[in-house]
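Possible regression after last week's pipeline update?

I re-ran a chain I had predicted before the update to compare outputs. Posting the input and the new output here so someone can diff against the archived version. Not blocking, just want to make sure nothing changed silently.
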Amino acid sequence: MSRPRNLLSQTLDQLAQAIVSGHYPPGGAVPPEPVLCEAYGVSRTVVREAIKTLVAKGMVSTGPKVGTRVLEPVHWNWFDPMVVAWQSRAGLTREFLRDLQELRRVLEPAGVRLAAERATPADIVEIERAYAGMRLAIEEGGDYVTHDLQFHLGLLRAGHNRMVEQMGKALGALLRVAFEISTSRANGPASSLPLHREVLDAVIARDPVRAERAAQVLIDGARDDMEGVLASRRKLPSVAAPAQRLRPARRKEAIR
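New output (post-update):
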């Protein structure tokens, strides 16, 4: 990556973090270009490109005589992985996590129901592969979160609804937040694995009602995990970092 691109990425990251952290609060003005250039040690071109990116993500607006102003978070693109990562670094709020869980409960059970009606043999193979990766990560250690994400996105793709599939792609960063939190709880992955199996078995059995119900149980379990982590007041994981890896399970805890 070239040095100018590095400078742009660093400036964008620093400016976004200042916004998400409240240093530049909603409704307030972002300092003018000369001030930002001096603060970050970059050219006007870099600052303008960073501002343009933030405008595209719904975080700021620009206009003659009013300059650059921070928009209310309701306008931010919460399906953008970078926005989610910036919020993760600044601290995940209860409101953010509540909105995420409510969105999952609305979308995923309906998507899984479609998967039970429309999944192809190739879809099933893909989801089975993701499930196997989850199980292996629990038993032998490894990246559970990535396979968990593949499992859920595979189910949404298996419904063969273009709108739902596009929504699934957009949900990716948000889902990773939920999975990182669930994984950070002791025995979280091991206890949720049978719930994942129930969802998959219902899809294989072509039972939409059972599949939808199983998905609701799985999501509610994730909500409970999330509440447990929040109540513990432990530091929440960051989606800006690589997915945390599980340690191998002791033999007596191995998944049957």
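Follow-up from reviewer: compared with the archived run. The first strand starts at residue 60 and ends at 63. Marking as no regression found.
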